[in-house]
Every structure is written in structure tokens, then in C-alpha cells.
Amino acid sequence: MSVKIILFGKLADIAGSSVSVDNVPDTNSLVDSLNKRYPELATTKYVIAVDKQVINENTVLNKKSMVALLPPFSGG
Amino acid sequence: MSVKIILFGKLADIAGSSVSVDNVPDTNSLVDSLNKRYPELATTKYVIAVDKQVINENTVLNKKSMVALLPPFSGG
Amino acid sequence: MKERKPKNIFVQGPIASSFIADSIQKHSSKTDIGGHSIFLGQVRADKIDGKEVASIEYTAYEDMALEKMYTIREDIFAKYDLTCMHVYHSLGNVKAGEISLFVFTSSAHRKAAIDACEETVERLKAELPVWGKELLTDETYHWKENK
Amino acid sequence: MKERKPKNIFVQGPIASSFIADSIQKHSSKTDIGGHSIFLGQVRADKIDGKEVASIEYTAYEDMALEKMYTIREDIFAKYDLTCMHVYHSLGNVKAGEISLFVFTSSAHRKAAIDACEETVERLKAELPVWGKELLTDETYHWKENK
Questions:
Q1: Is any Cβ of chain B less than 8 angstroms from the Cβ of C3?
Q2: What is the pLDDT of residues D109-131, one digit of tens each?
Q3: Which of B4, B58, C54, D87 has its CA 20 to 30 A from that of C39?
């Protein structure tokens, strides 16, 4: 299964604003896969949102999942 | 000695915006004198300012004293 | 002897939104400011014994009010790291829906601006000798009292 | 199912002082309002490694930000007795000295307006997926981080 993720801010500088990742059943495996492809991501601070909700634990993904990687917010 | 006092808000409705009072060496005697002249003042809430400072105890007056009677504030 | 002369805070009639806009605009040259906090007091059409407040007529013991405001300003600047503070209060007639008080504080960081604005509003409501005469729709009136 | 569609809060470029004035002016017909509290975020010309911030380029995960803002709005209205709340945030380029955030709360009494404004500012800074890229005078950049 392939999942499309979107990236913002500093993360988009590293990996582009959108990336497709294959064979990732959950967010933990997604992170592992991204860290291999973009080693700089492993040392960069971010949270993961699935379907516009920030997740705090490993979350199962399906092909309709909207996954976003969000660096620390700096609005205002 | 005569002291001129100024009055504001509701107090000016009762006694006018300025009143001269004779033979008042201090604020206590001033209040007594005013209450005789304007009985409604005795039942009306206010504080006294002498030289633009609100006083909390009996204060000696001289002919240069600026005395003001101030009803509860309602600015803003 | 005080070195600085108290700034006048009183304006005749309501405070126009265009005046507020100009005041904000003037701060665009101060690029060390990160946050502005503004409080606006608006005249409410309160119901009093079945009648409605049409406007408030403001009077003040101006000399004393300006001295008090000077002290409040000094205290607030001593307590908070502000870039600037502006205060305007109406005298005379201000209709329901119009603005009678404008407090404007600015700082590098939001916390100081927000806290300073709130404390200034609280203090000036409690300490400035200003009175509002609520003119009712039936041409009677009622002296306002701050809580 | 949510009944109400989240309101858009995003505007392209800086928030003009005339826009703020219009927003204030519109409330003059709401004569149950007694106090307005406004917070404005202004872009600071911070020094970073000897260079200066010339402007901030804002981007957002808009869909998520609007849903978050919807939740914040609902929470604030449940907690405080507000008449209304308006929030605007810039996207794109905002120069040092210009306004990028406008939070505006109104209530019958000042306390609710002031507290609601402050809490809204704190929450949106912490919860909205918005990012500021500080463009420096030497054409390099730095990603801002809220404290």
C-alpha cells in the first residue's frame, strides 16, 4: 500500500512538500521508511497528523489516510 | 476662613458644581457644615480630594486648599 | 518636582475607528514591537427601569485625572517591558454603540502588552475621577457607577 | 456531522489598519457590547546572527488550521459570555512592522472580552499549523518557532 504524505516548513525544505511512501501499514513504519530516505528528518522535530488530527502513538494507515508532517508551529 | 470646594457628578446635582464654605479649619468640619446646608449630601456616597489627593482621615485646610467632592467613579 | 508634564488623555466626543486605525498605523515604523493589545470601551444601550441608555455624557476632574493617569503610566512602565502606551477617554456626549475609551499597549512580546493593557484598564476605571451620566430615552438620566 | 462550516481566517499579505478600523466600526450597531479586546501580532525586525528579519513568509496547513480554529472558537464561546469573535491571520509575505494576526473579541463586560482574547491568542499560537519563514536581509532565511 502506498501512502501520500504532505510536509510543511523546514520539513518541506528537506524532503519536498509531498512524498509518496510504499508499504507502510502504520505511522511507525512510515517514519522508519522516511528516515532511511531522508536521514535529516530523523534529527528534525515534528509531529504527525493523520486526517488532520495530531497523533501521539502508532496509528494504522490506509490508502485514504491524509498524513502530514508538521514542524513546530510559528503562527501569530 | 472660607474654603471653596468643587463638586462633580451627582453631588453637583445636589449642591451645584462649586460652593464656598466659611469657618472650616478641617475636612470634618467642612462635611458637618455641608450636611447642614445640603441634607441630601449626608446620605450620598463620595470621597474627598484635597489638592488632588483622595484623603482617608480628617485633614487640615487652608485658604489655598483645593477641595473636591467626588462621587463613585464611572469612567471607561 | 515632576519633570514630565502629564499627557492629556481626554478627547471631546466619541473615539472614531479611523483615529484608532491611525494610531495602529503609526506603530509600523517601530519594528521592535511584536504585539499590541487594545481595549475599547463602548457605550451600552442598557435597560434601566424599562428605559434605555441613549448616550453617556462624560465629565471629569481633569487636573486630578491627568495626574492619576501619569502615576498609573509610570507604575505600568516600571512593571512591564513596554515599548509604548496610549490612553484616550471621551468627554461630553458619546452615543450607545460609540467608543469612549481606547487603551493601547505595545511590547516586543505579547505577554507584557496584554497584561499591561488589562491592568491599565482596571486601574483607570478604579482611580480616574471621571463620571458618566447615562441619558435615557425618556430624557431622564442616571449616574453610572463602575463595579 | 458538524453543522457549521469553519470560517476562513486567512488573508493574503499583511492586515491593514483600515481593515481593523472597518471591523471595529461594524460593531457600533451592536449596542449590547460594552468592551472590545484586540490583539495584534506585528512582525519584528529581530536580529539573527547579526542579520535582520526583513519579512516573514507565512504558510499553513489550511484545512487543519481552520478545523482547529473552529474547535478553539467553540471552546471559547462555551467558556466566556462573548457577543462575537473575529480572527484573521496572514499568509504569504508580511514585512517587519506590518500586522500578521488580528484577534478581536467583544462582550457586554470587559472581563470576558479580555480573558477570551488572551486565551484565543495563546491557543492559536500553540495549536494552529502555521509556519513563519523569517526572510533575512542577506536573503538567507530562518524558520521561526513559537515559545
A1: no
A2: 999 999 999 999 999 999 999 99
A3: C54
* Other residues' Cβ atoms within 10 Å of the Cβ of residue D57: 15
Phi-psi region at C15: left, alpha or beta (left = phi > 0; alpha = psi -120 to 50) = beta
For helices C62-79 and C110-127, the axis angle rounded to 10 degrees is 150
**Residue A20 distance to chain D (closest CA, Å):** 18
B75 and C121 in contact by Cβ < 8 A?
Answer: no
Mean pLDDT of C60-69: 98
Q: Which of D18, D25, D42 sits opposite C35 (nearest CB)?
A: D42
Pairwise CA distance, residues D35 & D105, whole Å = 8
Residues in chain D within 8 Å Cβ distance of C118: 114
DSSP SS3 for C13:
coil
Q: Tell me which DSSP letter residue D7 carries.
A: P
CB atoms inside a 10 Å sphere around CB A6: 17
Residue from C144, C123, C121 nearest C53 by CA: C144
- Residues C25-56: tens digit of each pLDDT: 999 999 999 999 999 999 999 998 899 999 99
Cross-chain residue pair A9–D101, CB shorter than 8 Å: no
Q: Which residues of D touch C32 (CB under 8 A)?
A: 44-45
**B29 beta partners:** none
**Would an 8 Å CB–CB cutoff place D139 in contact with chain C?**
no
Contact between D130 and A76 using a beta-carbon 8 Å cutoff? yes
Q: List, in sequence order, the alpha helices (H) in C6-58.
A: 17-25
Does any CB of chain B come closer than 8 Å to the CB of residue C101? yes
pTM of the model: 0.95
